[in-house]
Give the backbone structure.
Amino acid sequence: MSDEHGGIFDGLIGAESAQWAFGTDFEDPLAGVDTTVPDGVDHTELAEYCLMLGDDALIMSQRLTEWCSRAPDLEEDIALANIALDLLGQARLLLARAAAADPGLLPALPEGSPVPAEDALAFFRDAGQFRNVRLAEVANGDFGHVVVRLLLFSVARLALLERLRASSDTVLAAVAAKGVKEVTYHRDWAARWFLTLAQGTEESCHRVVTALSALWPLQPELVATHPVELSLARAGVGVDPATTRGEVDAVLDQVLAVSGVARPDHPPLEGGGRTGTHTEDFADLLAEMQMVARAHPSGRW
Amino acid sequence: MNARERAVEVAGQVRDPEMPMLTLADLGVLRGVEVERTADGHEIVIASITPTYTGCPAMATMRDDLVHRLNDAGFPRVEVRVALDPPWSSDWISERGRAALREAGLSAPGPARRTSGPIALTLGPTRPAPNCPRCGSAVTRLTSEFGATACKALYTCTHCLEPFEHVKEI
């Protein structure tokens, strides 16, 4: 196949940079895509909305990536890595869309830095500037914990993306249409493992019930409404998460019922990631995720 | 053969980097090839590709391969664009592509799930068990919904005991 992918040696002699480092570089993930802001929509609100959806995916992806080489068996290791990759892809498009809508969001970088816009947002913002829900950021626990986390996350994200397919913003509508297909698999994976563990041994059941109790206070944030979400929902661009509650509850109840696990009634944790209030765990996550990029702000990856 | 027909033919022969038994055209990833003239009169090929999955890491390789092959065929100017809408579906894999998958020991996807409106939770099997592409047995077992790439699931044949990959329906 050497002549098929003739470019591999070009990178070594400096003629073509796209093969370097991670090899995932596509100069602009929105190359040739129309990023005009729809009429009557505030571009800063659209950008902030894209950050919310993009940061959820990015931070969840980062936590899932930490599972790489640590899952109970190879198949689940690969499953978690694939799910993380899907979410990273969604994050990349959404952060690129945020930057296109409002270039004023971009953190300052050294003159001539080749860091693309979506990377600047991922690696050079501080904790208070991230808009992700806290469910995505809290530290990992055992396998039961990641199953519950992914179940709560993907049930809400799928219900949201289903509705976002009707967005008048063509980029959001396209990201949602594609995301629906992917998150359907994530949700099924998490729900099947929840059922398997709940109906497995006393110990495995205890693990998921414990994780459900620990993460339940973070669930309401997924279906709470931020003013920007409400404003964009009215403009036909976004989705008010509150409108997904019926579907989210129905799916969670279905999984809990078939698993024989009672629905917890812990009160929601106050504050919220949508306004930049994050947990202590988030600082550790960002330090690890951003360290290399921040050490080399003019680096080409 | 005019310039566009030539460009379509050259681009149509570029293979998928992860499933090299398929061309990008057979996979349904190559969405369009046009030849336009720039303001200063130069010929430019504009090719559109769409990712199979949003995080597909092969997009850069696909782009580079398209550019190199078209350059080699006498098109010095090539622009590769991303087409996000409509999202890629496994239904777009051509008949020739499905035959090539089977020949390479992979199981081809069945019809994609309907995805309009609320999507029902699937706690049981996502699809009828595919036949083993090696021995043809219908008795196969799902090992994992996620294989070496996001677009494939892993199965094991309970007759010949060989594992095989199934290209997922999306």
Q: What stands out?
A: The two ends of chain B are 36 Å apart (CA to CA). Chain B touches chain A through 49 residues (CB under 8 Å).
